[in-house]
Amino acid sequence: MKEHISNRSSQNPAREPIQVPSGSDNNRFLKIVNHVSRQNINLCWHCWSCGSGCPFSNHMDLMPNQVIRLVQLGKRDEALRCRTIWLCVGCHTCSTQCPNSIDIASAMDALRQLAIHDGIAAPEQDIFRFHKYIYGSIQRHGRLNKLEAMIQFKVGTGNLFSDMESGIKMLTRGKLELLPQRITSRKELDHIFTYYNDRRRSFDAHV
Can you give the pTM of this predicted structure? Predict the structure, then answer.
């Protein structure tokens, strides 16, 4: 991971995409990630600005730019199996610090989606469950019901009584709704989820 960290041209410090041979498997994986994330991953200079500002970098097995480098090199399996893509919370600190305006949080989200698409078990199962329960709650109601998602998460992890005191405080202060609020435009909501589910199933076709 230490090689090829800096790809900035000494003659021209302007944005210069990393060159990957066309027609190779590397190029294919890059195109898929670029399509799903709607970013140009090749613009990464590996300046380490993203990792230096990330509040969770101490817990990651790879720095964000190292994950980006795996994508640039076409190392799909390694990129999709690392813990970093699941530890990213999407706070966009890295994205705001990137000198080339790459939304790295979107790239991490794209890699999570691709990992699920490939059937790769998340190394952080609790985080995967957390995402799944929130997604399911929004799909059912059109908005998140925190109490429902929290109960599902506790049952799924087996930690039924952890954070009990905090949960009771939130409930008594009206921070957790007993009954979910549902939106009225169900057809529009179903259309959105159908569109993105179809798009997710066809990730590899976008090359």
Answer: 0.72
